[in-house]
User: Fold this.
Amino acid sequence: MPNTKIAGIGFYVPEQVVTNHDLMRHMDTTDEWIQERSGIVERRFAKRTEETTTTLGAKAAEIAIQRAGITKEDVDFIIFATLSPDYFFPGCGVLLQRELGITHTEIGALDIRNQCSGFVYGLSVADQFVKSGMYKNVLLVGSEVHSMGIDFSTRGRNVTVLFGDGAGAVVLQPTEEKGKGVLVSKLHSDGTHAEQLAFINPGCHAGYHFKKMGTEVDFGYEDVEFGGLFLTQKMMDDGMIFPNMDGPLVFKHAVTKFPEVIMEVLNDQGLSTSDINLFVPHQANLRISQLVQRQLHLRDDQVWNNIQRYGNTTAATIPIALCEAWEAGKVKDGDLICIAAFGSGFTWGASLIRW
Ligand code: ACO
Assistant:
């Protein structure tokens, strides 16, 4: 059975740079607060009406495809990971196919809804397809346009200051080289805290989960006679249409689950943290990455962080960071790369890749 290698990698971030000082014009926050709590200095925002999650993904994909030495027509499966899709349905997978101009139908497109761990989950799915021989050129894209769906008033500041837009992509192919490629992936989930980091409305929940949890929330359903529970006037008036996050709860779980799952993939392969040449963590918060680095006794040169410049781009953080590291010559033939993510769901996971 072949292994799965990353044959090409690319990333794209919008040109528009938004600094912490720019955000201060819209909400009660400070550059000091944002940097001290998250490490973020600036992020990129997509150009309204000209860029979407799909178009950013397509730009990153084109670079990855070219670097893999294939053409768009050679791609036989698309996996698109995002939490900020262009449409509720259809997903971005088919939109990407169209954007790339792939007109043949000997191809499948799958959308992954795993938020921050979307890329790790996507890699694991792609790995199975490639190993089994079902597909030979899988295009995996992580892309986000957060800027169009977050609250720029002070009410949303705890979430809004953390996020940015961007995309990363890889082309995955089979390799017969022994011990190369994706060595292992471990995936986890725990739905207990699903609503603590979530984008709830619009949605088809009709209050069910809140009622079951005994949490009284008035979504404004009384004003609606038939249908239309998806989005009510009250949801809009009360700003219930933005993501919400219990930051300290997420932080606490992240700093526990990251090291656990990293040790799990290392133990699976009989390896230790000193064998890692480069650790590319999901860029949720620089403080989380630093704590994890310390817990695992990793040196600075073993870790790649870029949240300072891009913020949290959710499903895109790992491919963007991995691509930047590769372009900087930090990823060499034979290197052991560890990627890991934790986020909404909660879902988390890690993979080891021998480059
Ligand atoms: N500017 C200024 N003050 C703020 C801001 C802001 N942008 N946001 C919140 N505050 C205030 C709060 O109102 C609070 O004020 P109070 O003490 O008067 O009530 C105070 O700052 C502290 O708030 P906390 O939420 O307790 O701050 P904390 O130190 O926990 O930092 C942070 C918040 C940065 C969000 C942190 O909890 C964190 O990084 N959590 C993890 C985030 C994460 O990993 N998310 C997952 C990825 S997202 C995904 O999967 C979709």
